[in-house]
Design goal:
GO terms for molecular function: mRNA binding. By secondary structure, the chain is mainly α. Helix 13 runs parallel beside helix 15 and helix 17 runs antiparallel to helix 18.
């Protein structure tokens, strides 16, 4: 490939040198439609001409052939169907002027007017059609899109022994190319050779172009080499054929030869080569051609500009594509579709929808392709509101029944989890292709509705649609999910007959199904028959079979895999370690590690990373650290495995410290590293460390949506809401999750006004809020005491956005009412829930009862909390506080004894504070944290002074807290 691209670069340079050294004047384009010069007589008006002819006929005077020819010629120039019918009547009533030339012109006239029926009627009345008459009727069929009928009539022409002319053969070659009819092209080629037209340049070029369009590039090359005279059309036909057949290096080879011959390339040539550059993602060569076209003064038409846009899109440089797009004075539909598709492919979905709107504002009516890309953009953004609006436009344009547009709508609704709407669109399709069937079946499986997937598959069989590997995968998963053994065996049988079983993904789905059906023999049978048992197959078999005692045992797994010589010991151990981690079998994992050591297997980076991940998943971070420390060379994957393990198990300080060591060892962090460290920083409020990571991210991964979201989340959890908002608005792409991270921060700090502003901004971008965002908005209402606004948002969540409130939203409403003192209403809200309230809702009401001195309601809350979670220490502690406030000591001791009998202990609280760029952790009742001179004590005293300065004075009342034994109490 590198050699071919070098040749291309050299050829472009030679073309540039030849162009600058030669004549700068551009050659005029070839004029294919040359009209012979007419005489000097003025063209008579149609109306006057036919009136004159009819008068002559009434007077019994014969019509002249010259007059009829002139009338027909004028009618052809005006494309008048009425004139054509008048001429037909005149000819029928005047047989003495009837000649083939007039019939040919009349057929041509009806063809230009789009009336193939009347053209055929004229042809059928010709007793002995000449080759020109045959050409006229064949051209009529081809021009009006009846290509198969044209080839059929050409067969009749040969059967009647009429020898085709050159123009007829050119017409038939064009028809063969449109139909990709290779066998008919061979027959036409033989006729051309018999007629001695094969040496004609125009016929040779047409034959070459037809073979290329039929996909027979080698035959096209053979014709090309035989051509005595090769013009730019010859070269372009061959290049276009090679590109159409995806033989890109052949196209490069002939382009280089073309430059050696000195033939001037035109826009069509460069359009072909730019297509090659796009397909091969050869950006430097594509830019070189673009630069030379601009410097050479070549007039760039709309076709080559559109090709440039497509080339830059395929080379992943959307900015350059957009510059070319903006330079087009009058964009056509292809220009808009290409740039919109490029935006969608590269994740700039909001920009794609903006461009779609601009296209409509500019007066262009969207076509099917533009709607397909617009729907894909809505689907990727998760914007159901915009997607439904786009659907309504598609219905108005009558595109809904189109198979491509309809399949895209099905996929969009499937991603929204609106399967009822997806099914409606699917049922409305006039013709359903395999993609639409697979999309809906896969959606049912992914949304855990395997029964509906099987019913749809049955309907697919009834419609005689042949399924493929993708269908087989989804149906096998559905069978495994519901234990449909008979259907699963039937699909396996069909997969064997269709030879789908050799597909890696189908094999893994078969193993997955047999494991779920507890059919280990079936899984082993598939495994033994596998023609290429790779890591995916083994992972599927071992991970799915991890719950089976037979497959968990490490020695048995090694024994089963050892016969596969194509899989190394390291890969086998890697698979088994993942299986052990899946079922949390730490004993098996340690035995496996021991066997690795005893077997003297070289622990390379891949195997070590698997072991680190295994120990980290077990929570055995010391063993994971030991494997990591023993590594002679630590790549970024090993660092990531350990950092992620520390973060997942709450050792956030260790994760941050390990990240510092990673930097000291000059290891370049990747996206996974940043995500793990940012999560650790957000967990402990290490904003200074987070800012360091932010600075590193800005140097490398500025466009990563996940990392941008993690930064927003980190700043929001650290209380730096302005920084979080700045990061969010600086992201090139924002998802609902990105907005949700900022809303979460506003919810914690009660920033209701900021939440409302963000909601408006999010809606302007075409993104609808999800359940998580509404939870944050309700939390902000609760923390700010905005009861009425909270009620409005809770109502809008259901009625405006169509979201069903979850238990966490209901708990927010309870908390909102309790903070405002509406305890009876909060109780009624909890009791009226359609689902059983959880312990957190009752605890919110419980806490408020103490603040408002409502002992009777507090007792009810205590009973509900104990019923839901007897081991929740917070419930006992809250009740003790209520009794202590009222000095009800008998009840106090009864509850305390009940607490001790359950064994429930309250975990001491933790907090973090950042001092001098270092995060310190302190625990409740850890005496070392409160020693004189301790940095934490100094910080706490500083905070206390600030509180007093701002007028805050904490209330002093009887309070109970558990101390070190978990059951004691103190005043």
């Amino acid at each position: 490939m590198r050699t071919c691209l070098s040749m291309l670069t050299r050829a472009i340079s030679e073309w540039w040198l030849n162009r600058t050294a030669g004549d700068w004047h551009l050659q005029s384009p070839r004029n294919f439609h040359v009209r012979p010069a007419g005489n000097a007589e003025p063209i008579i008006q149609l109306t006057d001409g036919f009136t004159r002819a009819k008068n002559l006929e009434r007077q019994g005077m014969p019509l002249s052939r010259e007059l009829m020819y002139q009338l027909l010629q004028t009618s052809i120039e005006n494309e008048s169907i009425d004139a054509a019918r008048d001429a037909h009547l005149l000819l029928a009533s005047s047989p003495h002027v009837h000649v083939c030339l007039l019939d040919d012109r009349l057929i041509q006239l009806f063809s230009l007017c789009g009336s193939l029926l009347e053209a055929n009627l004229v042809f059928c009345l010709v007793t002995r059609p000449s080759c020109h008459t045959w050409h006229a009727i064949l051209s009529a069929h081809t021009d009006l899109g009846f290509n198969k009928e044209a080839l059929h009539m050409f067969g009749q022409m040969q059967w009647m022994g009429v020898k085709p002319s050159k123009v007829t053969l050119l017409c038939i070659l064009k028809t063969c190319g449109l139909l990709s009819a290779l066998m008919k092209t061979f027959l036409a080629h033989n006729l051309i050779v018999d007629s001695k037209f094969d040496l004609d340049v125009e016929v040779g070029n047409s034959l070459l172009d037809t073979y290329a369009k039929c996909g027979s590039v080698m035959d096209a090359c053979g014709i090309f080499e035989k051509l005595e005279t090769k013009d730019v059309i010859s070269w372009n036909s061959l290049l276009a054929g090679a590109v159409l057949s995806k033989q890109y290096f052949l196209a490069l080879e002939y382009f280089c030869k073309m430059q050696e011959t000195g033939i001037e390339a035109n826009n069509i040539t460069f359009s072909c080569i730019l297509n090659v550059c796009g397909a091969l993602e050869a950006l430097p060569q594509g830019r070189l051609i673009h630069g030379h076209l601009l410097k050479g003064g070549v007039s760039l038409d709309i076709v080559i500009r559109n090709t440039l846009i497509d080339m830059y899109v395929r080379c992943h440089t959307l900015e350059d594509a957009y510059k070319v797009f903006e330079s087009i004075p009058d964009c056509d539909m292809v220009s808009w579709c290409t740039i919109i598709a490029g935006c969608t492919q590269h994740g700039y979905n909001s920009l794609a929808l903006d461009l779609f709107a601009k296209m409509q504002q500019g007066g262009l009516k969207p076509d099917r392709i533009s709607y397909v890309h617009a729907v894909k953009a809505c689907s990727s953004l998760g914007s159901s509101k915009q997607g439904m609006f786009m659907h309504s436009e598609i219905v108005c344009c009558s595109f809904e029944s189109d198979v491509v547009v309809g399949s895209t709508l099905v996929d969009m609704y499937a991603k929204y989890a609106c399967l009822d709407e997806a099914l409606k669109v699917f049922n409305a399709l006039q013709r359903r292709n395999l993609v639409s069937w697979n999309t809906l079946i896969g959606s049912y499986v992914q949304q855990e509705q395997p029964t509906l997937a099987l019913l749809l598959f049955e309907r697919m069989q009834q419609d005689c649609v042949q399924h493929n590997e993708v269908t087989s995968r989804w149906i096998l998963k559905a069978c495994g999910s519901i234990g449909a053994m008979d259907e699963g065996y039937w699909i396996h049988d069909r997969a064997l007959k269709a030879k789908f079983e050799s597909n890696v993904l189908v094999e893994s789905s078969l193993i997955d199904m047999y494991m779920k059906l507890n059919d280990l023999k079936g899984a082993k049978w598939v495994l033994k028959r596998s023609s290429n048992p790779n890591l995916t197959i083994w992972n599927e078999s071992i991970t799915d079979g991890a719950s089976h005692k037979e497959m968990v045992d490490a020695s048995k797994i090694l024994e089963n895999m050892r016969n596969e010589s194509c899989i190394s010991d390291e890969v086998r151990i890697s698979c088994i370690s993942k299986a052990c981690a899946t079922v949390k079998a730490i004993g098996k994992g340690m035995l496996l590690h021991n066997e690795i050591i005893l077997s003297c297997i070289n622990i390379d980076a891949v195997l070590a990373n698997s072991l680190i991940t295994m120990y980290a998943d077990f929570g055995d971070l010391m063993s994971a650290q030991k494997v990591f420390d023993d590594l002679p060379f630590k790549n970024v994957v090993a660092w990531n495995a350990l950092i992620t393990g520390y973060t997942q198990h709450g050792s956030d300080f260790s994760a941050i410290e390990l990240f510092g060591k990673l930097q000291q060892n000059d290891v370049v962090p990747d996206g996974v590293t940043y995500l793990s460290v940012l999560k650790a920083c957000s967990n402990v409020g290490a904003i200074i460390q987070g800012k360091v990571v932010h600075d590193l991210v800005m140097r490398s991964l500025t466009d990563d949506v996940m990392i941008g979201t993690a930064l927003v989340d980190m700043y929001a959890k650290c209380g730096a809401l302005q920084c979080a908002r700045k990061v969010l608005h600086g992201m090139p792409k924002r998802s609902v999750v990105s907005w949700g991270a900022l809303f979460s921060g506003y919810g914690v700090y009660g920033s209701l006004d900021s939440s409302k502003q963000c909601l408006e901004a999010m809606l302007r971008e075409g993104l609808g809020p999800d359940e998580r965002i509404f939870h944050s908005i309700l939390a902000a209402c609760s923390h700010s005491g905005s009861v009425e606004e909270g009620r409005q948002h809770f109502k809008a969540m259901q009625e405006v956005h169509g979201l069903i409130p979850g238990i966490e939203h209901c708990n927010c409403m309870v908390d909102l009412l309790c903070r405002a003192g509406y305890l009876p209403e909060a109780k009624e809200f909890l009791c009226a829930l359609p689902v059983v309230p959880d312990v957190y809702g009752w605890m919110s009401l419980f806490t408020a009862c103490r603040l408002h001195g409502n002992k009777q309601l507090a007792r009810l809350c205590f009973d509900r909390v104990v019923d839901l979670d007897p081991n929740m220490a917070g419930g006992y502690l809250a009740m003790l506080n209520v009794f202590a406030d009222s000095e009800m000591w008998t009840e106090f001791h009864r509850v305390h004894d009940l607490w001790r009998s359950t064994g429930a202990a309250k975990r001491p609280g933790k907090a973090w504070v950042e001092v001098d760029n270092k995060v310190h952790e302190f625990n409740v009742f850890r005496s070392s944290d409160l020693q004189p001179g301790n940095v934490l004590l100094v910080k706490l005293k500083s905070l206390k002074r600030q509180m007093i300065h701002h007028g805050f004075s904490p209330g002093l009342h009887l309070s109970l807290e558990p101390f070190q034994d978990g059951y004691g109490y103190m005043f």
